[in-house]
């Protein structure tokens, strides 16, 4: 959960983002937005403490890789340099994607 106002990405105090984990997301993928929002808001109730006014549910079907490549990138040098990088290579998080990109850039340089 993140406070968007304190991060500087919202002009409105109290605007929050609640992220669901992979298990929850798989289980409730086909549920109506209203139900998903209710479950997440209930889970966060002790921290947010008030009723929400506007709720938006967004799903990312491919937000987390199911299988990881064992190296931080995949490079093909022939016939031309082609590099695959991202969170499927160095860990399924933003940090993994960044580390993968840096490793790929180092290989290219």
Structural commentary:
The chain folds into two domains: 2-48, no CATH class; 74-108, no CATH class. The strands form two sheets. The protein has a two-stranded antiparallel sheet. A two-stranded antiparallel sheet has the order 3-4. By secondary structure, it is mainly α. The protein has helices at 4-7, 22-27, 33-48, 87-90, 94-108, and strands spanning 2-3, 16-17, 74-76, 82-84.
The biggest sheet, with number of strands, parallel, antiparallel or mixed sense and barrel status, is: 2 strands, antiparallel
Secondary-structure class: mainly alpha
Instruction: Return the string of H and E elements.
Output: EHEHHEEHH
Write out the strand line-up for the largest beta sheet, numbering strands in chain order: 1-2
Distance between the termini: 38 Å
- How many separate helices? 5
- Per DSSP E runs of 2 or more residues, the count of β-strands stands at 4
Strand content: 5-15%
Output mean pLDDT: 90
Helix content range = 40-55%
Work out the radius of gyration. Answer: 19 Å
Unreliable parts: none
Shape: elongated
| Structural domain tally | 2
Secondary-structure topology with pairs:
Elements: E1 2-3, H1 4-7, E2 16-17, H2 22-27, H3 33-48, E3 74-76, E4 82-84, H4 87-90, H5 94-108
Antiparallel strand pairs: 1-2, 3-4
């Amino acid at each position: 959960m993140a406070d968007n106002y304190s991060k500087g990405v919202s002009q409105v105090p109290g605007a929050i983002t609640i992220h669901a984990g992979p298990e929850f997301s798989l289980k409730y993928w086909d549920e109506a937005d209203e139900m998903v929002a209710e479950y997440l808001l209930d889970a966060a109730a002790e921290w947010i403490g008030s009723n929400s006014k506007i709720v938006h549910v967004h799903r990312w079907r491919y937000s987390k890789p199911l299988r990881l490549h064992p190296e931080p990138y995949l490079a093909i040098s022939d016939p031309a340099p082609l590099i695959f990088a991202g969170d499927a290579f160095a860990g399924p998080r933003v940090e993994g994607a960044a580390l993968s990109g840096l490793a790929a850039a180092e290989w290219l340089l």
